[in-house]
Amino acid sequence: MKTLKTHNDWTKSPGNVFWAEIAPYDHVVQIYDNDETFLNTLFAFVTDGIKSKDCVIVIATKPHLESLNEKLYQSGFSLDDLSARNLYLSLDAEAALSKFMVNDWPDATLFLDLVSSLIAKAKKDNRRVRAFGEMVAVLWAREQVGATVRLEQLWNQFCESQAFCLFCAYPQSGFTQDAVDSVLHICSAHSKMISTGNDRGISDIYYKSVGIA
């Protein structure tokens, strides 16, 4: 099993990161200060995947799915066509969580059943796969810190066995107490962080704490 990157190995990527250069196995996180910033990053992640003929899986909250789908539509993408060509699979994060959370804790077997079926469908015709998951942010918003970290760990294990890139995102507003400790909890489960472009953003707490300017 791959060892998570140490502090000195971290890459501080700009918000307009060229997603095609993100490698399989990378587990990328963004801690964003507003929805527009996040949706622009997610839109770039999705459209770069579509243009590269990857299958893109998006597991997001209903408001974020609706906003993303509207941006895709306004940019000339047909959701029906993308779905028919197996280029875009979307799920509601709350509904997905309900399939594997048992007593407020991720059940590893049920989680594996869910994501394995998704990846099997996504890899049809030998397509490469990239995925965005917002289930962790939903758990984090509920202050279920242990469950959040456990779910990130399960994602890491699965990513390594299946070789696909995973993108996660957390709203900055969720880091209200002991921000340094909270940021380190989340960042330790990822291999790259995308900067929000805001020097006062909470993501910079991590960089400063480990000496990345």
TrEMBL record:
InterPro entries: MEDS_domain. Pfam families: MEDS (PF14417). It comes from the Bacteria. Residues 26-184 form the MEDS domain. This is MEDS domain-containing protein. It comes from Chryseolinea soli.
